[in-house]
Amino acid sequence: MSLLLGSLALIGIVVLIVLLSAGAIAMIARSRSKHGTSGSLSSAALEIQSLLEPEKKRVVETMRVASEAEDEDAIDGKK
User: Fold this and answer.
1) Which helix (H) or strand (E) holds 15?
2) Which distant-in-sequence residues (6+ apart) come within 8 Å of 56 by Cβ?
3) Inter-residue contact 42 to 25 (CB < 8 Å)
């Protein structure tokens, strides 16, 4: 009888650990989607640099157009 209860308790603990791990992974994924990426940081750095060096402005504009096109594609894909 105590072997059965011990086994059930051990299984319950393992299930609890798995559920907590899955919840933590889901929260990390949700948090990551809310924050910017390193790509957005590099884009911001290029925009600041374009203010100081006018020839960089064309690179920033090209990146912005590409980013907007990707955003539109993502929005169209969700609908």
Assistant:
1) helix 2-34
2) 46, 49, 50
3) no
Structural domain count, the chain: 2
- Locus of tokens 């590099």: 42
- Tell me the C-alpha distance between 49 and 57, whole Å: 8
Phi first, then psi, for residue 19 (nearest 5°) are: -65, -40
30 and 47 co-located in one domain: no
Residues 28 and 43 in one domain: no
Say what the pLDDT of residue 64 is.
79
d(C-alpha 13, C-alpha 1), whole Å: 19
User: Under a CB-based contact definition with an 8 Å cutoff, are residues 43 and 61 in contact?
Assistant: no
> pLDDT (tens digit, 9 = 90+) per residue, 42-73?
777 777 777 777 676 677 777 778 888 877 77
**The three-state (H, E, C) secondary structure of 29-40, written as one string:** HHHHHHCCCHHH
Q: Whole-model pTM above 0.70?
A: no
